[in-house]
Amino acid sequence: MGKLECESELKIDRKLALSDAVELLSGKWKFLILLDLYYSGTMRFKDLMQTLKGITPKVLSKELQQLEENMLITRTVNNTKPVTVSYALTEHASETQPVINALIEFGKKHRYKIISK
Amino acid sequence: MGKLECESELKIDRKLALSDAVELLSGKWKFLILLDLYYSGTMRFKDLMQTLKGITPKVLSKELQQLEENMLITRTVNNTKPVTVSYALTEHASETQPVINALIEFGKKHRYKIISK
DNA sequence: CAGTATCCAAAGGGATACTG
DNA sequence: CAGTATCCCTTTGGATACTG
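Output (structure tokens, whole complex):
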């Protein structure tokens, strides 16, 4: 405080929040998983395996666990035979919607920009 | 087309755009670099080294190169002695502003959510 | 069906020292 | 000042096979 070279509390808070968000949502698949769940509401493990082309069960399992740890999705075991498991977004995950929409917009504009040069 | 299990073109486009964006902006530091440049307009290498606490010159150099390749920042060598180099955002980088703001909002809400349980 | 186990290659990223 | 070079460890993530 008082020194010119000091960053404001506000800036520091924003940087911390940004770091948090980046860490939480890092990885190749997390956003795509969230997007699929936005579209479909509830999905089984095998459904996600199908729509996320190229993912392996090990990787999908790990990503889902991390999303669950961070309270962005729920995991529900159904009383069927054989057992099925359903994944769905939590209410808190709705906070990621603006991020995903913004990313999609950026991705579209970037692709357009690349093509048109 | 016509099959029920087919995904719409729109969905596929959105998934591709999302993948593109994630790939372009992946990594621990890129968003923080962009945020710093938003705040400061133009920064030198050593300025970024200072504000990005913990980054090493090798890593910073690589991140800056990738951002430049993707036309999100410009690199300008100044006629000073010793030589200095300035980095600044491109116009195209303004498309990332909504993403960054959304991430910050999410990061704040997430932290609040964690604390209050 | 919903994963786990094992193995492995590549990338990410940090520490340190050096250079034009 | 603005990097590069080298070394090295960890993480990510893919391939494949297996299990309750």
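The CA atoms of residues 25 and 87 of chain A lie 17 Å apart.
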